[in-house]
Structures are given as structure tokens and as C-alpha cells.
Design a protein that fits this description.
There is one protein chain. The protein is an alpha/beta fold and 294 residues long. The chain has two domains: 63 residues, no CATH class; 230 residues, Alpha-Beta Complex (2-enoyl-CoA Hydratase, Chain A, domain 1). 38% of the residues lie in helices and 16% in strands. α5 packs parallel to α6. The longest helix is centred in the C-terminal third of the chain and has 21 residues.
Length: 294
């Protein structure tokens, strides 16, 4: 088997043979060798996706990545210091199956919750970061997610640092009831203090950003960026269509549609994300310095 997959050409040949011989005996294919794009359904070598920053080479759709992979792509090597890594619910709400699912996700993802926060550098520019991870409860916002994001915002405010939050979420976490909804107000209030201090907040939307997260800190950035083709909205498309009794455009709630309507400032491809964030941070630093001199 090792000899079979020794070169990339061998792997491509195997893929072709697999498509041509479905009627024959199944081929023993290792796990994670191929990946099917959720957008265009085309299949790619997982190795090719890795070298392309996990962006589909066929349609350009940004495949979801873990919070730690996002940190690897964005933050300077060795500069990230994580906050509140072990923070978790001490008393889990009595919702059927919730505690078991939390424990299972913590084991499979290596995370305690759906967001990773900390301080790091982007080409030497120091900033506070919060990166949501859709592999953990679809990035839903419970009380711990809200608390970690709030703590990151408050740290940025007290240390006069710019803030960048990468969002991906299915919305508020229904298993926690009203406690999850409170996080919308709590994070928004913390951002108001950050703004009042004259500090920069960049919101970077990734697929999908919906529900309570889109209705709170995701859309409150001084500058709002988005990856291409990602879903951005509050309620689902079918719910809205049934409410307004109208047929909605095919690209409704996609990043390109939202940009056209003026709700976000720029769509940035994943390969350009670090450079664009650096340019914004540097521009803000110069502006703040000029303001001090005056």
C-alpha cells in the first residue's frame, strides 16, 4: 500500500481507477486521501487542499478549518499566547444529552469550547484574537463562548490593543436557553467600551456566520471582512422567504450579496488574509500615532 501512494501521480491514477471501476471489487483507499467540496461537490486530493490553504481548487470555496489551523495561517510563528484555555461549564444545564455531547466534542476536537482566544502578532503587529471553531457544536455561542470573547475584548481594551474576531457560528446554543442569548448583549457592551477607547476592532466572517453571533459581535466591527462565498445572515433563507412571501435570489445571504448591499466592507481570499489584516493594523497604528502627535 505504501508503494501505491508513493507519488502524487500514483494518487491521481488511483482516483481515476476508482471512478472507472465502481462495478468491480472495491479498492482499499486510506482515510483522508480525498475530500469532496461541500459547495461544488468536486473531489480533490487532501494534500492539494492543504497546499491551497484548504480552499477548493475547483470553485474557490474556503473549506472550514479548525481554530488552530486559522492561527497557524494568520499569526506569526510562536507569537500566540492563549487566554482561558481550560474555561468550561462547571454546571452543565439539564438538557437531554447535552453533557455527553460536550464531553464527546471536547475529546474529538481537543477544545474545551467553540472559540480560542489569545494575543499574538501579525507580521510583528501585536493584537488580540478570537477564533471560533465550527467543529465544536457548529460554533454555537453558549455562556463560555460569550465569556471568553468578552474577556478577550476587555483585555484588548485595558491593554489598548486592536482586536480581531474570526466568526463562524450556527447562532446561540439552544441547550443553554436564556444564558446563551445574554451573551449577545454582554459581548456587544464590551465592544462599546473598546470603541469608546478609540481602539480598532476587525470582524472577519467565515462560513457560516448566522443567528445570535451575526446579530451581535460579528456585525459590529469597525471594519468587517469576509471570506468568499460564505453564508452570512440571521434567520435561514427558507424562513425569510416564507415570511416575506417572495422568492429570494440564489445568492441571497452569500458574502458577495451582502457586500453588494453594504453590510460588509471587503471580501478577502484566504491566501491574502494575513497581508490584508497586517495592512489594516499598520494603517491604524500610524493613524493613532498621528493623533497623539497632534
Amino acid at each position: 500500500m505504501e508503494q501505491l501512494f508513493k507519488t502524487r501521480k500514483d494518487r491521481l491514477n488511483l482516483f481515476k481507477s476508482r471512478k472507472q471501476s465502481l462495478h468491480k471489487d472495491p479498492i482499499d483507499i486510506p482515510d483522508n486521501l480525498f475530500h469532496s467540496c461541500p459547495n461544488c461537490k468536486e473531489t480533490s486530493l487532501f494534500e492539494d487542499l492543504m497546499h491551497n490553504d484548504y480552499v477548493c481548487p475547483h470553485c474557490g470555496f474556503p473549506i472550514k478549518i479548525t481554530a488552530h489551523e486559522r492561527i497557524r495561517q494568520i499569526v506569526d510563528d510562536g507569537s500566540f499566547e492563549e487566554f482561558n484555555k481550560g474555561m468550561h461549564l462547571k454546571q452543565v444545564p439539564d438538557f437531554p444529552g447535552y453533557e455527553d455531547k460536550l464531553e464527546r466534542l471536547q475529546k474529538t476536537t481537543g477544545l474545551k469550547e467553540a472559540v480560542v482566544t489569545g494575543v499574538g502578532k501579525i507580521y510583528g503587529q501585536r493584537c488580540v484574537l478570537g477564533i471560533m471553531d465550527s467543529n465544536f457544536f457548529m460554533g454555537s455561542m453558549g455562556s463560555i463562548v460569550g465569556e471568553k470573547v468578552t474577556c478577550a475584548i476587555e483585555y484588548a481594551t485595558s491593554n489598548r490593543l486592536p482586536l480581531i474576531l474570526f466568526t463562524t457560528s450556527g447562532g446561540a446554543r439552544m441547550q443553554e436557553g436564556i444564558s446563551s442569548l445574554v451573551q449577545m448583549a454582554k459581548t456587544s457592551a464590551a465592544l462599546k467600551k473598546h470603541s469608546d477607547a478609540g481602539l480598532l476592532y476587525i470582524s472577519y466572517l467565515t462560513h457560516p456566520t448566522t443567528g445570535g453571533v451575526s446579530a451581535s459581535f460579528a456585525m459590529l466591527g469597525d471594519i468587517i471582512l469576509s471570506e468568499p462565498k460564505c453564508l452570512i445572515g440571521f434567520a435561514g433563507k427558507r424562513v425569510i422567504a416564507s415570511t416575506v412571501k417572495e422568492e429570494l435570489p440564489d445568492d441571497f445571504q452569500k458574502a458577495e450579496f451582502v457586500l453588494e448591499k453594504g453590510f460588509i466592507d471587503k471580501i478577502v481570499e484566504r491566501k491574502d488574509a494575513k497581508k490584508v489584516l497586517y495592512q489594516i493594523l499598520k494603517m491604524h497604528e500610524r493613524s493613532a500615532y498621528a493623533g497623539k502627535r497632534k
